[in-house]
């Protein structure tokens, strides 16, 4: 039996705050890759963006990392990595990919979810690191000056993309519209989320600032943390870095 | 207009006085027109009781009339509401649970209501819906799902009935239960608020079964309202699924809270129905801004295909489903070819 290529999924983003939708991306992507028969997803990494990114209402990275950690307490394969957020300044996604890829090569993660029939053994192939994102990110490749062409190419050529569908987006169309993406479309996996669940963090922040319930949109421990730290309240905009 | 400066200074004195009466004020949910930064802490369920920690509150912009109304309105003037959700819950999902949260925030936000309880009432097996697994599993999953909620609970009365029970009867059952509980509570309560209430309450109970639609409920008894999504509202139009008399009773005597993504469709549906139009004041449409499509049907389909349902249902529910291998092609074939109970009953009655 042909052994599968081990894959690690890396999701970059604000995670401001993390929601069930972010967590779903990983589940959907893993299912999709497994279904192809070619891959074995061994690990998921959440990499919250650096505070230096300067996005409006972005709370301090220490909080965003802590919230992601709480959300992932019950996951046995996804973890949060604060490396990107701890760098002195914001860095391009491709650099984050490069960093994590070199880390993986140095110490490959244990194989998870192997067949019970198989002997546990060291992975035969080096793990591939793929960027996990929603279809909306794929569209941002078209935004002028947001991404460097060379970086887009490196991402889809050297690493690979797993892109989860979102309402109102046409990922196939975005790929066809871009020469670079078209050339490497074999390395772009379009995963369809069977159960639409568009929990935007923006909505969550707004609901919180209006004192409305966000229960069942994000894990309870994250909600408790937000409350205890007084995040996302109406007058907390001064707290954001 | 001259009155406003006077009222304004009155309010400022009042607000200092009210700072001492914080619990009552906090329970006065701000209506959408009022912008004030209440401490966010009290709106987080998952703790026992309403959690009131902070004393620092920033009162900012108010519309004066509503402001005074909210502040002067103490607890007993608001109508207490119990939200009842009927359905298969096959299985329960995060979307079902969200309905409760959205409805509660909405009703509390009007300033007229105070939602005190949510009840999940899974339908009995006699409903004979395709793919419906045994009630005891659905009950357990709902209980696991609501474990972390301090106000939503599961009720088994409906599922324990031998025959399928019309929704209006479930509403009636829970309303009567509340009225009975209310009388007992006031009888035993050490605080005698209004002495005539006890007698009036007992009289009401006797009258209630006959003159339900004529007697206005005492402000003190919580009102049961049916919580649902747009699909249930629109199912009123399916021939023989509902008795028209039942629909009338539901909207006239109880009320409907319908959470929907597409408010305009629901509004159109109400407009095109004479009964719903007549009682539109008793039908509340709550907007669901999040495109949330977590239907139980899709959950079951994902499970049959070996796909993950993690983060679509509470973790405890997902674990329970996995442990008991609840959903499969076999389970989906249950009741295939069997006529749904309401259709069977209403068609039979129409013929007789």
TrEMBL record, chain A:
Give a GO biological-process term: NAD+ biosynthetic process
- Associated pathway: Cofactor biosynthesis; NAD(+) biosynthesis; NAD(+) from nicotinamide D-ribonucleotide: step 1/1; Cofactor biosynthesis; NAD(+) biosynthesis; deamido-NAD(+) from nicotinate D-ribonucleotide: step 1/1
Q: Name one GO cellular component term.
A: mitochondrial matrix
| UniProt keyword annotation of Nucleotidyltransferase present | yes
Which Pfam families does this chain map to?
CTP_transf_like
Reactions mediated catalytically: beta-nicotinamide D-ribonucleotide + ATP + H(+) = diphosphate + NAD(+); nicotinate beta-D-ribonucleotide + ATP + H(+) = deamido-NAD(+) + diphosphate
Does Nucleotidyltransferase show up as a keyword for this record?
yes
**Cofactor or coenzyme needed:** Mg(2+)
The record's keywords, sorted A to Z, are:
ATP-binding, Mitochondrion, NAD, Nucleotide-binding, Nucleotidyltransferase, Pyridine nucleotide biosynthesis, Transferase
Q: Where in the cell is the protein located? A: Mitochondrion
Its EC number(s):
2.7.7.1, 2.7.7.18
Region Disordered: list its residue ranges. 104-124
Q: Where is the Cytidyltransferase-like domain?
A: 10-206
* GO MF annotation terms: ATP binding; nicotinamide-nucleotide adenylyltransferase activity; nicotinate-nucleotide adenylyltransferase activity
Q: Which InterPro entries match?
A: Cyt_trans-like, Euk_NMN_adenylyltrnsfrase, NadD/NMNAT, NMNAT_euk, Rossmann-like_a/b/a_fold
User: PANTHER family from the xrefs?
Assistant: NICOTINAMIDE MONONUCLEOTIDE ADENYLYLTRANSFERASE (PTHR12039), NICOTINAMIDE_NICOTINIC ACID MONONUCLEOTIDE ADENYLYLTRANSFERASE 3 (PTHR12039:SF7)
Subunit text: Homotetramer.
- Outline what the protein does: Catalyzes the formation of NAD(+) from nicotinamide mononucleotide (NMN) and ATP. Can also use the deamidated form; nicotinic acid mononucleotide (NaMN) as substrate with the same efficiency. Can use triazofurin monophosphate (TrMP) as substrate. Can also use GTP and ITP as nucleotide donors. Also catalyzes the reverse reaction, i.e. the pyrophosphorolytic cleavage of NAD(+). For the pyrophosphorolytic activity, can use NAD(+), NADH, NaAD, nicotinic acid adenine dinucleotide phosphate (NHD), nicotinamide guanine dinucleotide (NGD) as substrates.
The record's comment on protein family reads: Belongs to the eukaryotic NMN adenylyltransferase family.
What's this protein's name? Nicotinamide-nucleotide adenylyltransferase
Q: What is the lineage of its organism?
A: Eukaryota, Metazoa, Chordata, Craniata, Vertebrata
């Amino acid at each position: 039996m042909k052994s599968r290529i081990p894959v690690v999924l890396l999701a970059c983003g604000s995670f401001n705050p993390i929601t069930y939708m972010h967590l779903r991306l990983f589940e959907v992507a893993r299912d999709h890759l497994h279904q192809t028969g070619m891959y074995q997803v061994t690990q998921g990494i959440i990499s919250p963006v650096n505070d230096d990114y300067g996005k409006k209402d972005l709370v301090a990275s220490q909080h965003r990392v802590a919230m992601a950690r709480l959300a992932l307490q019950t996951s046995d394969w996804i973890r949060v990595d604060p490396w990107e957020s701890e760098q002195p300044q914001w860095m391009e996604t491709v650099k984050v990919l490069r960093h994590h890829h070199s880390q993986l090569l140095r110490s490959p993660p244990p194989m998870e979810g192997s067949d019970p029939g198989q002997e546990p053994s060291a992975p035969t192939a080096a793990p591939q690191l793929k960027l996990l994102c929603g279809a909306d990110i794929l569209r941002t490749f078209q935004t002028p000056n947001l991404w460097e062409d060379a970086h887009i190419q490196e991402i889809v050529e050297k690493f690979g993309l797993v892109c989860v569908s979102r309402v109102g987006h046409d990922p196939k169309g975005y790929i066809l519209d871009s020469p670079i993406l078209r050339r490497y479309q074999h390395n772009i996996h379009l995963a369809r989320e069977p159960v639409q669940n568009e929990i935007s963090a923006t909505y969550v922040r707004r609901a919180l600032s209006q004192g409305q319930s966000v229960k069942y949109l994000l894990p309870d421990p994250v909600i408790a943390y937000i409350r205890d730290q007084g995040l996302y309240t109406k007058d907390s905009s001064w707290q954001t870095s | 207009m001259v009155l406003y400066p006077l009222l304004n200074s009155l309010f400022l004195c009042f607000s200092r006085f009210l700072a001492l009466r914080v619990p009552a004020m906090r329970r006065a949910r701000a209506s959408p027109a009022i912008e004030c930064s209440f401490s966010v802490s009290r709106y987080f369920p998952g703790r026992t009781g309403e959690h009131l920690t902070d004393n620092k509150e920033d009162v900012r912009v108010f519309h004066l009339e509503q402001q005074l109304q909210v502040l002067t309105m103490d607890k007993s003037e608001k109508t207490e509401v119990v939200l009842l959700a009927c359905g298969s819950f096959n299985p329960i999902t995060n979307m079902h649970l969200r309905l409760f949260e959205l409805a509660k925030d909405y009703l509390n936000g009007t300033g007229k209501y105070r939602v005190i309880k949510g009840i999940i009432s899974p339908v009995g097996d006699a409903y004979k819906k395709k793919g419906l697994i045994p009630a005891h599993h659905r009950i357990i999953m709902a209980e696991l799902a609501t474990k972390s909620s301090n106000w939503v609970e599961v009720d088994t009365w409906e599922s324990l009935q031998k025959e399928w029970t019309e929704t209006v009867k479930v509403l009636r059952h829970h309303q009567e239960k509340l009225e009975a509980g209310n009388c007992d509570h006031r009888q035993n309560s050490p605080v005698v608020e209004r002495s005539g209430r006890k007698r009036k309450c007992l009289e009401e109970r006797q009258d209630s079964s006959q003159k339900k639609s004529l007697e206005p409920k005492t402000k003190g008894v919580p009102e049961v309202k049916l919580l649902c999504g747009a699909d249930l509202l629109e199912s009123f139009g399916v021939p023989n699924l509902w008795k028209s008399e039942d629909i009338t009773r539901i909207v006239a005597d109880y009320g409907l809270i319908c959470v929907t993504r597409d408010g305009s469709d629901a509004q159109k549906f109400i407009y095109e129905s004479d009964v719903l139009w007549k009682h539109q004041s008793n039908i509340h449409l709550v907007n669901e801004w999040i495109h949330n499509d977590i239907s139980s049907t899709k959950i079951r389909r994902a499970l049959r295909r070996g796909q993950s349902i993690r983060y679509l249902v509470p973790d405890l529910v997902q674990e329970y489903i996995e442990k008991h291998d609840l959903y499969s092609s076999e389970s989906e074939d249950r009741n295939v070819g069997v006529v749904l109970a309401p259709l069977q009953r209403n068609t039979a009655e129409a013929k007789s």
